[in-house]
Design brief:
Layout lengths: L50 E8 L17 H11 L3 E6 L8 E5 L2 E5 L3 E6 L9 H10 L4 E10 L14 H12 L4 E6 L8 E8 L11 E4 L11 H8 L7 E9 L1 H4 L12 H8 L9 E6 L5 E7 L2 E8 L6 E6 L6 H12 L1 E11 L3 H9 L6 E9 L4 E9 L6
Antiparallel strand pairs: 1-5, 1-6, 2-3, 3-4, 4-5, 6-8, 7-8, 9-16, 10-14, 10-15, 11-12, 12-13, 13-14, 15-17, 16-17
Length: 409
Amino acid sequence: MIGNRSIPINGLKNENNVIDISDDSSNGSLEEPQRSLSPSSEIYFFEGAEKRLAVFMSTSSSSGVQQPPDLRKITTDQWAALLSAVECRILSTISTSSGNSGLNAYLLSESSMFVARDHLMIKTCGNTKLLNCLDQIGLYGRAAGFDQIASIRYSRKNLIAPELQEPLYQRFDYERDFINTVLERNGAVHCFGGKANNSEDRFFLYTSSSSVAGGQHQHQHQHQYHQPKHFQSKCIDDAKQEMKSTMEQYKFEIIMEQLDPSAMAIFMENNNEKLNASEVTARSGIGQLLPGMMIDDHLFEPCGYSMNGLIGQQYMTIHITPEPDFSYVSLETDVPQVNYPDFIAKILRLFRPQKFMLNIIVPISAVQVAGDLFDAQFHGFVRLEMERTIIDNSTEMVYARYGTQHCCC
């Protein structure tokens, strides 16, 4: 069982409270649309969508640090104490750490955490309270030898039932204000989606960097995507070299919903076979998505699956909520792909969703990634939205949303 997986929702309002976004500005609305849940979900519901926090540390040249700062010095027990405030726990760990390189990966009762020398990423689902750890992260950073938080990215998809969350997580502007208050920032918020077909589906991203003069909002360049007539000459191999500097120079995430029950059956306890996690990883095809990875996987009771994968300094993580009424799968990795459309098609064949969204962070110089996605067609799917936004001086985010003719999009 993934944490408090069974959530009673007696008294839940079931009317369709989808907000009218026809007059939204390009920034989108930060209000959280609510969906009507099915009758069976009134008894049992789990929010698969994750809240995601990435924090990057730095040290000034005058800080007087004698030993190289390193977040990986923080012990598992210390991380467990931090995560208790989030209301999740560590299940297992793997590591590729060696010298200044490599990662420590923590599989959690609700998703995952990855820790590198100078940054960490925590991703938690359900009713976790991810932002409760902000203060402690700053303290741990100082204990590890850093003297400031250089930048932060906090993001999530819109939730199915935001009214079941703590008040802080019911609207993204509440989360933005909380981060700004705790860390004395004035970060920028980008809202992707919600502009086509009166869709409920959106993706929210908060960014803040100490390099922004005076703490002012970073200027946002958001627009519908148009294919560039000419690609820059910089090839993807050159872009990969730029990506190595931080985990957030390059990030691929696909979020899938309304998944084929037959594809989800292997992640359910009543799948007629008593498979362990490693057998599920192999039989489902997950183990072949990025061959050669060190894998840490877990099969939950009565259903659900999570995995962390590491290869050198790079990671992949997958989290699966297989219940038919609110099925959800997320896959995230920073392993660069030569052909992203082929990688996406491989994932779609494995999980067979009726709708999915992509959010991909790339160096601004890696324009071929966005161009390839613009040209890509995925069998049985129609692209509903596509946008690009420059999120800092060196990176942009590409967002796209797709659905089949049968999906509730």
